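Continuing from the previous page...

OK, I double-checked the sequence for HTH hxlR-type domain-containing protein against my notes and this is the correct one:
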Amino acid sequence: MVSMEKKTNGGDEINMHEEMRRAFALLSGKWKLEIMWLLNQRIYRFGELRKAIPGITQHMLTAQLRELEADGLISRTVFAEVPPRVEYEITAKARGLGATMEALTAWWNEYGRSVPAKPTSRGRRAKGS
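Thanks. Re-ran it with the corrected sequence; updated structure tokens here:
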């Protein structure tokens, strides 16, 4: 287990609390973990992601995808077609979170039934819902 205290590594002091805050910030946001979960399964197009995440708005999905891309956790590929096709996929850096995703899955399988259910509607309702 890694201590949250300052550690010395080759003369450089590392404050693990600050480092973990940076790590948490990469994945904080109402939708980022859900987006990462989906992209960990396969490549998605924008419209597919929007349909797969009930309650997310187009604006919020765009903002979250841009942040994840800027942080190097997902990649965006634009195909020169008419109409343009855009695909999103998880990067090798983000695949390093696979063990974390597996641990969360195992935890949920063990304890998820004990967590009280909450309404699933988040954000605005999608048009036509």
